[in-house]
Amino acid sequence: MAKIKHRAHILNIKSDEITFAVNYAKEDCSACAIAAICNLKNADKISLKHQNKQNFKIGDEVILSVDEKVKKKSVLLLLAVPILLVFVILFMLDFCGYNDDFCAASAITGIGIYFFVLSLCKNRFNNWIEIVRENDK
What are phi and psi of 66, to 5 degrees? Predict the structure, then answer.
């Protein structure tokens, strides 16, 4: 399966976190289906929880790669599930006879709680990204 790849260089290394600056090139994104909603720009900083087992150094050029399956999981987690959650909350509360204002406020609160829980789990998603030194390809 194809991988999504971005070149980056290492800006900072802490004991369990590495910060990268992405070297964005438009041609890298031409084949990507979610390029329209991706907000990755040149020199964007990305921090990932990562044990530095490969002995990276500040300034190393690396390739951040992600499986194609991860792209589909991301779209599902960030777009499809929240939209479905809104409709389920609205339908259930409307069916129970609550007024529209309460239904809307509950749906927004549900989305807020969903993204809060998702942010608490973000360290699990760091495993989806493979970091390879550019010379080691």
Answer: -140, 140
Weakly modelled stretches of the chain, pLDDT under 70: 1, 24-43, 51-53, 135-137
Distance of alpha carbon 84 from alpha carbon 24, whole angstroms: 32
Give this prediction's pTM: 0.66
Q: Distance between CA atoms of 121 and 63, rounded to whole angstroms?
A: 24
Phi-psi region of 90 (alpha: psi -120 to 50; beta: other; left: phi over 0): alpha
pLDDT for position 78: 86
pLDDT of residue 60: 85
> With the C-alpha atoms ordered 67, 124, 24, 30, is the resulting torsion angle positive or negative?
positive
- Identify whether the C-beta of residue 103 lies closer than 8 Å to the C-beta of residue 89: yes
